[in-house]
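Please review this pair:
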Amino acid sequence: MAKKMRLDKLLGHMGCGSRSEIKKWAKGGLIAVNGRTAKDSGLQVDPEHDEIVLDGERIRYREYIYVMMNKPQGVISATEDARERTVVDLLPEEMSHFEPFPVGRLDKDTEGLLLLTNDGKLAHELLSPKKHVPKTYFAIVEGEVGEDDAESFRHGVTLDDGYETQPAALTILRHEQEEQRIYSHIELTITEGKFHQVKRMFEAVGKRVTYLKRLSMGTLVLDAALPLGQWRECSEEEIAGLRQGQSREK
């Protein structure tokens, strides 16, 4: 049986206006439900099946949003902050009124894939330590990363606080020399999300990360065509992939 809700609550959730504004519009005959003028803003409606039109524009209800962002450096993974610019600040009002939050966090100086949603259940599944959701990063590391490091990461390394990491897959892409220093380009896949984990893992083998970018989280892969600092809504296939990936883990 379909879940019903108040007309003003539905329109408010969709960012159409405040409850008092919606009440005024209803009284003014600007709202129609299934082709009939709805003068009562408290009318119970079926968000999935009823056709709701506000001032000639059809309102298509949705409860959740799923946003892929290519996070730039200099913004923090939070919903609000008194001093710093946040990833939510990069969204327009028509998205931010859904009150999305970042699923996990990327450091202020880290770029790349960030999922923002208001779907708390999916976020919990993706972040649960029991799920071991893989996350892949590209990094530039000061120092020559070698097969001995890859072997260490395969077995897990000990961080500065004594924590033993889960096994991780390290792929060495190439080395380059700059001003008598060697830098390594690598990809690293981890299945947990400790504070500054990638940076601390390399510190554990005596090396320093100078650039870090997340490429994927679970089945969600950063869109190569998405410019830095920009966002787009996830496709139905991408959302289904995330959900199916978690259901397979259960």
Q: What stands out?
A: The mean pLDDT is 93. The chain is about 25% helix and 30% strand.
